[in-house]
Design a protein that fits this description.
By secondary structure, the protein is an alpha/beta fold. The protein has 3 domains: 66 residues, Arc Repressor Mutant, subunit A (Orthogonal Bundle), CATH 1.10.10.10; 137 residues, Aspartate Aminotransferase, domain 1 (Alpha-Beta Complex); 236 residues, Aspartate Aminotransferase, domain 2, CATH 3.40.640.10. 41% of the residues lie in helices and 13% in strands. Helix 8 packs across helix 9. The radius of gyration is 24 Å and the shape is globular. The protein starts with a helix and ends in a 10-residue tail after the last helix.
């Protein structure tokens, strides 16, 4: 809310000052605006973008922003103010919210300003993406017979069969639907499994995109605490009993943001508790292809050990390839599959066939295995480097768990009694040139302590990790100057 307000305030000030400039005249640089208004580069960038969207300024990459020339043709300026009444004037009960807070998701989707180290990104840096392999796969896909024809609504049979083999030996193509990435699959599953207004149990903390999807569907997320071994079964059972929920969403493998893995002893217990409550488990298996090469053997998917259809499985190729390679899958057994299929068709008809054909070409090529091995080694190197830098430069920053998969670290700031304020630190870090994800959006209720998520997948390499930690240290020491707690030894 603070960021949104500051953008609106700065936009209003800049709009009121435009008359000082003649048409085509260059406006002050972003750096000058940052210094003048003591705002973050992101706030300035968004304010200028808003003025550009209004047609008041023109931005030219590499040159800056300029006052736009007056519009010609005598057309009066557009008036969209009527939309505020239409969008918010319904006097009936709001079962499905008409406004959706996607700020926690947008934090990781919005590229930071040039020169800012991206510790808040959720996708592989371009240097880690299989760009040549994807380009070759797309080229081959375009030459496949029928590549541009209408695909089956469930997805190409060969691609569904590939995902089925990935999930487990008891799955077949008939159990799988192809989706436009994991986020789309999560949204479909939530809408299929719970009615608007119903509670849905979620791990605490959890992925902000899932919370946004649940709330957009009119659901009420209820937190279930975790520990180092994943979601706590005794609290899960209590939450089912207290709420009557019929859905649990969990990430058993390399959980986002903590990186934890659901302990072997708890896997069967979690599914059993859900079954006894008459509930489904939505398993978000987003990070299986982001395993580090020192992780050891991975546990099977929960769905692989569930013959009775309690687990609805979500997986995707996106995290291991590119944010634009949006191909994923939903897998389920029993009548629920038909409901998932119906919602998927209504929402998106089908995933474009050329993209499905390209996915088949990619995962069927020798380059796919080489890419996964390369990413596995590189993520371990980056994780090790970031942990070492943080422990050397910021020993007051607690790292409760060092993950063996995924692309980020979950860090706890010094207790609030020591003066460490999460929002202040995130803002100070951005001013210092490093973007980090605040911990608050990962909780659907009050967070137990101030925390941040630090990503090592979206940066260019080890040098940028070291520089990002250095900037983080500089920023945080400035925030904590008046505090009795210091992040330095």
């Amino acid at each position: 809310m603070q960021e949104r307000s500051s953008v609106a305030d700065l936009t209003a000030v800049l709009r009121s000052e435009l008359n000082r400039y003649s048409s085509g005249e260059k406006l002050p640089s972003s750096r000058a605006l940052v210094e003048r208004f003591r705002a973050s580069p992101v706030t300035v960038s968004r304010a200028v973008a808003q003025l550009a969207a209004e047609g008041l300024v023109v931005t030219r990459p590499g040159s800056g922003a300029f006052r736009a020339h007056p519009r010609t043709g005598g057309r009066p300026p557009a008036d969209t103010s009527w939309q505020e009444v239409s969008l918010n004037g319904d006097g009936g009960p709001e079962v499905v919210p008409r406004t959706v807070d996607a700020s926690g998701l947008l934090v990781t989707l919005t590229p930071p300003p040039t020169g800012v180290v991206e510790f808040n990104g959720g996708y592989l840096h371009s240097s880690l993406q299989p760009e040549r392999a994807m380009a070759a796969a797309l080229a081959r896909a375009g030459r496949r017979p029928g590549a541009w024809s209408r695909p089956p609504t469930d997805g190409l049979t060969e691609l569904r069969a590939w995902f089925a083999r990935e999930i487990g030996p008891t799955f077949t193509a008939a159990d799988v639907l192809i989706t436009a990435g994991g986020q789309s699959a999560l949204a479909t599953a939530l809408r299929a499994l719970a009615q608007p207004g119903a509670p849905v149990l979620v791990e605490s903390p959890t992925y902000p995109g899932m919370l946004a999807a649940a709330r957009a569907a009119g659901l009420r997320p209820v937190p279930v605490p975790m520990d180092a071994d994943g979601v706590r079964p005794e609290l899960l059972a209590a939450a089912f009993a207290a709420t009557g929920a019929r859905v649990l969403v969990c990430q058993p493998l390399f959980h986002n943001p903590t990186g934890t893995v659901l302990a072997e002893a708890r896997r069967g217990e979690v599914v059993r508790i859900a079954r006894e409550a008459g509930a489904f488990v939505v398993e978000d298996d987003f990070a299986r292809h982001l395993v580090h090469d020192d992780a050891g053997p991975l546990p099977a998917a929960l769905a692989a050990d569930d013959p009775d259809g309690a687990v609805v499985h979500v997986c995707s190729l996106t995290k291991a390839t590119s944010p634009s390679f949006r191909v994923g899958a939903l897998a389920a057994r029993g009548p629920v599959l038909e409901r998932l299929r119906a919602i998927q068709v209504v929402d998106s008809l089908f995933v474009p066939r050329p993209l499905q054909e390209a996915a088949l070409e990619l995962v069927g090529s020798p380059a796919w295995g080489r890419h996964l091995r390369s990413v596995s080694a590189e993520l371990r190197i980056r994780r090790t480097a970031m942990v070492a830098e943080l422990r050397r430069e910021l020993p007051g920053l607690a790292l409760p768990h060092i993950p063996a998969g995924g692309g980020n670290l979950w860090a706890r700031l010094p207790d609030s009694g020591g003066g460490a304020d999460e929002s202040a630190m995130v803002a100070a870090a951005l001013r210092a040139g490093v973007a980090v994800a605040p911990g608050r959006p990962y909780f659907c209720a009050e967070p137990p302590s101030p925390q941040v998520r630090l990503s090592f997948v979206a940066v260019a390499g080890l040098a940028e990790i070291a520089e990002g930690v250095r900037r983080l240290c500089t920023a945080w020491e400035g925030v904590l100057d008046a505090s009795p707690v210091s992040l330095r030894p």
